[in-house]
Amino acid sequence: MTAHDPKMSADHSNEIGLYAKRKSVFPKAIDGRFRRFKWLVMAVCLVIYWVTPWIRWDRGPYAPDQAVLIDLANRRFFMFDIEIWPHEFYFVAGLLIMAGIGLFLVTSAVGRAWCGYACPQTVWTDLFQHVDRLIDGDRNAQLRLQKAPWNAERIGKRALKWAIYLAISFATGGAWIFYFADAPTLQHEFWTGNAAPVAYATTFVLTMTTFIFGGFMREQVCIYMCPWPRIQTAMLDERSLIVTYKDWRGEPRGSLKAAQKATTPLGDCIDCMQCVAVCPTGIDIREGPQIGCITCALCIDACDKAMADVGRPRGLIDYCTLEDAEKEKRGEAPTPLLKTIFRPRTLVYFGIWSAIGLALLFMLGQRARLDLSVAKDRNPEYVMLSDGAIRNAYTLKLRNMEARPRTFTVALEGLDGGAMFTDEMEAASARKALSIEVPADTTKPVRVYAIRPRGSAPAQFAFVMTANDDEGGTDRAQTTFTTAQGNGQ
Amino acid sequence: MAKSRIDDATGVETVGHEWDGIEELNNPLPRWWLWTFYACIVFSIGYCVAYPAWPLIDKATAGTLGWSSRGQLEGEMKAEAARKAGLLAELDRASLEQIATDPRLRRAAIDGGRAAFKVNCIQCHGNGAAGSPGYPNLNDDDWLWGGDVASIHQTLVHGIRQPGDDATRMSQMPAFGRDGILNAVQVQDVVSHVRVLAGEEKPSASSQRGAQVYADNCAVCHGTAGEGSRMVGAPRLNDAIWLYGGDRKTLTQTVTNARYGVMPSWGNRLDPVTVKMLAAYVHSLGGGEETPAPEAAPAEAAAGPAAATK
After folding, report:
1. Is A475:A465 a contact under the CB 8 Å cutoff?
2. Is B30 in CB contact (< 8 Å) with chain A?
């Protein structure tokens, strides 16, 4: 490079630093079809978040009555009629895979809809921006206040606004813990100071992250911190719906006044800047698709309003695929919406997504509610008794996944002349089958001694567990009987 | 080193570094990002002051909070001891019979006994309590001094042939061969007879001669049919279990030189609760016997070593 020409030196003089100050964003209030849809999504999301832990669900006397409960201490996950044990965690993994493929599906069809409507960062930022408008006034008032000195009005308004931020943040952070314990009990413990330290710590951390991310970081989280936009941007294709400024219709832009003076006809964009004013991430959509656009569509509402005011057709800024943009530019009719959404790529995603969903439902219906496992003692492998009989020891684990105590019969299968007793019984009362009660929702370990008469050969056999109630169910666990001659394998 | 300039393609300023024609665009990070970096540095200073951080010659700086991983472990051990204190006090108060009949106490005692066994007993009796020649297998139903929980407890507290313990289990088999009580042929004959009693070999002329030797010398302790005697810890001979071994060579050695197995008394080494838990654990290994019903004449029961507990 041959630097040192005067132009470059001039550029150098107003060099920008390595770090940039955040440009404050004061989005203007707007009403319109997408704004109303955002209200609806926000209300649904917040209600689900705050109400879910308080829904009660009767599971009988042996299980919690909270509809959705992640019981980490007891390693159980309750969701309405479904109870997940740790060894069934693949259901949760399946749900996460569905969420991932669901993201592919939604993104390929309707672009960054998650970012624009349902992401908690978007929902809470939106909520906090409404608080801004409530306390400080709309965009212009906010801008004025930002430039004002720290007088009584500014201090008072800031204090009030931040107090409301903090209250919302506390309600948000505090609600999280109710998913992990019985909500009414925990609430009582929380206010009386008897809750676990982790409950207070979690509430504090989530209160502060909500306060900082929702109140102050806002769009910076999306632009600098979140990996989602990068992933989503990579998954968009030319037939995904994105918010598009139709420059072929809008350009050259100019105000109504400028249009009167202009010698050549101007485009539909009246350069009113309303699309920029309402944008919650502070971008100008007219510069084209960009990482800062979360596709919340508020600029569509703003532009529609401006177009209506000047009597021009709506949709100068609109949801539009890149493919349709090219078509419209050439004057062709755009692809019908249904055809845009239902196309091979989205249908394949939907197929995989529903196949996993159906498989999970099928497995949920098929899963066993009892289980038997056996671990044979290897030290000693066998014990010789006075009369020459051989005894082997086993640890059985009887798993009862029902929310009620159940009685099971455990029997020896294929052990000729064998009998068994537990470490809570006398050897003299050894028999072929034992009746064992397992408490509700519990895995019960039972130590079992199996005896066979003198001269018995090594054997392969099984313990068979059968439920004695109407529901029934059976499971077997294969193991070996070892003698001095080996273990029969 | 080039000067910074505006990149034509993007309209973004370069930072002014250039490597073989490759330049870096200056897309600035947000300023708050820098502040979080500074905040981390400040935090690390505080952390270094509060926690052990700087390695010195023989130790590290202690930190003002006084935290150490050993101290944390100590605290956790104390908390665990405090958690178990109530249960251990209950076990201390409860009698062996009460522990045996209360499923909760019994389970706790067995679990505690398993842990204590791993520390104190496996050196001789083995990790699985299966013993080895000279050290009894505790899993089986053959007991030298009694297999009910009280007898096991008595054995644990006072040991076997423990010098200096008046209540220890005491007996001594004569060294029949070495001391010249029996001659070599008589020893071989009685070995044959004992092996017949155990079903290890068929009756022979030798064993028939040995029967008389046995009746004269051995039956007083081991019983006429070789059923043994728990009163004196004389092993049962007519079963499938051997403490030292049932082959001719080992039996010849046993009869010639006798055996004198010693188990230490644990009553003065371990606390009473641990000994109780060990008794419950050993009793649970599959060979435990029921406590003999007190229907026997009280005088007789009192004379038995089992009743001498405490």
Report:
1. yes
2. yes
